[in-house]
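Before the break, one more example. Copy the sequence into your notebook; we will annotate it together after we see the structure.
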Amino acid sequence: MALTLPPLPYAYDALQPYMSRETLEYHHDKHHKAYVDTANNLLKDSPLADKPLAEIVKESHGKNAPLFNNAAQAYNHTHFWHWLKPNGGGAIPGKLEKALADSFGSVEEAKKQLVQGGVGQFGSGWTWFALKDGKIEVMKTANGENPLIFGAIPILGIDVWEHSYYIDYRNRRLDYLQAVVDHLVNWEYVAERFETGEA
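Here is what the structure looks like once it is written out:
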């Protein structure tokens, strides 16, 4: 069961002015495609080839670094495009809003810690809201790592690899993260992942 590159769920220019057409063309069509293609090549004749992508990520971690890196990034990006939407940000669905407030003290504190996770991630990586033991926590991970390998479910991830923001923001990672949280997050998709708890 070969991995596929899912199409963007919106037009290339739909996230402007916070994320440009050029960024999406490079990020989706070049970087995400390369992760999928490389993972497919590495999965040939592998016992993991017919497993779901989340299982490939978990089972390759610590055993097959090239496969893990590319499969994890394919997984991360497949969800990343759905964690964003035109005219995002704004109101958070009730159950998720309550869970964020319960876990962090307030929604504003939750957002602040998520952004700080991304700013504080040295080099390439991700900042996450992850569901673990019934609570939401912030995780930051290097490279392609994600909460799955720590026994948690990623419900929101923001890419802080330079290819996700350098065309539009240069070295201003904080401005990029703030723009995503304030204007692009698809809170309905985050809430769906929170409520189903599926990997």
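The mean pLDDT is 97. The CA atoms of residues 145 and 179 lie 23 Å apart. Try to locate both features in your own notes.
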